[in-house]
Every structure is written in C-alpha cells, then in structure tokens.
Design goal:
Radius of gyration: 29 Å
Number of helices: 16
Strand order of the largest sheet: 3-4-5-6-2-1-7
Shape: flat
Helix content: 40-55%
Distance between the termini: 18 Å
Strand content: 15-25%
Number of strands: 13
Largest sheet: 7 strands, mixed
Amino acid sequence: METDTITAISTPMGEGAISIVRLSGPEAIRITSRVYKGKDLTKVDSHTINYGKVIDPNTNEIVEEVMVSVMRAPKTFTREDIVEINCHGGMVAVNRVLEIILSEGARIAEPGEFTKRAFLNGRIDLSQAEAVMDLIRAKTDKAMSVALKQMDGRLSKLIKRYRQELLETVAHVEVNIDYPEYDDVEEMSHDLMREKTRKVYQDIEELLSVAKQGKIMREGLATAIIGRPNVGKSSLMNTLVQENKAIVTEVPGTTRDVIEEYVNVRGVPLRLVDTAGIRETEDIVEKIGVERSRQVLQEADLILLVLNNNEPLTDDDFALFEAVKDFECIIIINKTDLEQRLDLNKVKELAGEHSIVTTSLLKEEGIDQLEVKISETFFDGELDSGDLTYVSNVRHIQLLNQAKDALKDAMEGLEMQMPLDIIQIDVTRTWELLGEIIGDTASDALIDQLFSQFCLGK
C-alpha cells in the first residue's frame, strides 16, 4: 500500500475561473499547513473549505489567495487524507503553488494515481475505476449515463453475483470429493452442475447481447461519409455537426484529407469522418487523400454513401456501391431541390438491403429522417439507459467472451459425462476471468497499464 503523499494539478491547463492542486496521502494536510496562512488546517473539521493564502516558506512571500478543502480519511475518494487547493485560474499561479507543495515533500502523481489509490484502498473496484475515465471522455448524455451506472457499481454487482454462484458450485464439488462420508451434503451431480453453469452462461450471454451498443456509446460509431467529389459530403458533415468544420466549395476535390468530428445523433455518438471524394485522379495530393479514404472505409462501423440527385450514375458510383456491399451502409440521395437526373430504380437495385434516405442539404431537408435511420440501424430506434446494464469497455467484453467460452467447454464436458473434478477446472477458469473485470484476479502489470491511460490529476 502506498504511504507517500502525491500531488497534481487536477484541472485543465490554461486560463479559467479556478485551478485546483490536489494532494492525497498521510502528509497531505500537514504539508499544506506549512505553506498556508489562515486557520490551522490540522484542526479544522473534515469536509470544510477554508479561505487563506499560500506563502513561500523560504521568503514568507504571499504567492496566491486560495480556498482550501480539507477531507480526512477514510471518507474520501482515495480513503486517504485529501486536500484541494483552489487557486485563481491561470498557468503561472497554479504552477507556483504546485512547485511549493512539491518542495515541502509531496511528489508528483503518476497518471491516474489518485484513482489507482482509490482502487488499491478498496474504495472502488477496477471496473468502477475504468468508468471514471469513461465519464470524463463521454461524448453524449447516454454515454455519461452508462459510465455513471458503472461507477455506481451496477456491473460490479452482476459480476460478483456470477462469481459467487460459480464459487459455490466449485466448493460443492470439492466437498463431495474431499468429504464423501457426509450424508447431509447434497451430492453435486452432472445435472445439478449443468443447471448452475447454464444459468451463469445465459446471464453472460444476456450481458454481451448489448455489448455492441455499449461499445458504441463509449467509443463512438466510426462513420465514414463517402461519395464522388462535390455530391455534398462536407455539407452533410457540417449539417450534422452544426458548425463549419469542413471547407465547402463548388470545386470538385476540395477535401484533400480525412476530417474527423464527434456528433451526437439522438444520444448516439458518431465519430464522423468526412473523406476526400473517391475517384480516379492524377493530382498527387488528392490521390493521397483518396487512398486514406479507402482505408477509413475498411475501418468504419457505418458508411454514409452520398449520391447527387442532379447527376446520372457514373462508373465511380458503381465502384462505390461495390465497395460498400458488405458493410453497414445508408444511401443518401442529396440535392433533391435540383432536377432529378438520377435513375432511382437503378439506385434501389444497387442498394439491395441498404436503406435509402433523400435529402436537400441546401434546404436542410431529410436530416431528421437520416438521424432516425442511423438510430434504428444500431439501436432499434431508441437506447434504453434505464434498467439495462451496458458493457462498454473492450477489455470487459473480451473477458466476458473468454468466460463464456470457458463455461461452454464445461457444459460440453458435462454432456460427455466427464468427471466433475475435471469440469470444475473450466468453471474455476471462468471465475478467474470474471475476477479480472473487477480487479480481484488482475495482475499488477495490467493494473499499472490501465491507470497509465488516465489524465495526470485523476
């Protein structure tokens, strides 16, 4: 267990109303007291905020006018003494305060170390710790809701329940093997173990059934906008983003690179990518953009293929239809305010099972229908953020899939009437895999790697 006192700036660098220097550890209050002029912080009540000044102990010079929050262990985020020094916003003032705190014996915190201490001190488990970063990175209110529920321990409670059921099953087998003479112990039969393992298997399957939606809410839906030059791709992105992030001109080939932006579509975060128009070109710069566009196409979760209602289909359009046939795709017929020269019957034939939406981006028509179609494609039109527990973390999804496979092996062994002590190896493996989600069986290296992804003051 850590015994030193750590500190870091826990607010973004730059100008603002306030900046906060946070300390955590056994010396947090005493270190702050040595550079603080005001009430005796060692005697103030816990969870109070106190006005005073930070002084340079070497020169007795007043460095900053501050409000200092004092929170005593164990009722704190890290279960250690925590002090938060609220300074005026600005880089000079807050860095000067941090330097003085460091000179008095605190050390600079590693990325995520405050949250890591909360985990190590039993304040939260690993899945709750990861939810802290999910909350910080949330792009929509739905993503924030999922992160808050995970921070509250909703996923942890499910995982602990599954592990307890498996642990009881394994213990039951051990009792039967080690103490066969006890008549009052129910014999663990193949049928009984099959019943118990199937129940946990079905629970994990149910949790994984909404994992795709959870992952999308956490990371965003990688959405590529493709089409020939000048069909309205950049205009579509600008309309969705509601601000001009891409250059829109009448000159084909204006977008020379890939432009990314996050967009909130009915609670679904789209990681929207406006690509260079895909066409054959001799322009070396545009050619690089086209190649990058093709790479984005391969990595996209959703493709928005934009066509021009005012122009007939070209060979480039036919090539695009061929490129997207195996992907999740929505066909957008744009510029419906202009004369129709597009063969709609041919478009329907080429689209196959892909949805078709008509828009006039110039007149801002058809955007609502497009947003509904995107939502319906991945969430049946509506996200349930109420009682449903979403698994959104890739690491959690991977471990749940491995646990499910281990249980499947156990169930296959049961069908083959293999000895129960052999089958319990797979059951125990499932228990360990589930434990990695909440940190009970996670290695130190994994824990260090996970917390290194956090921001410095968290």
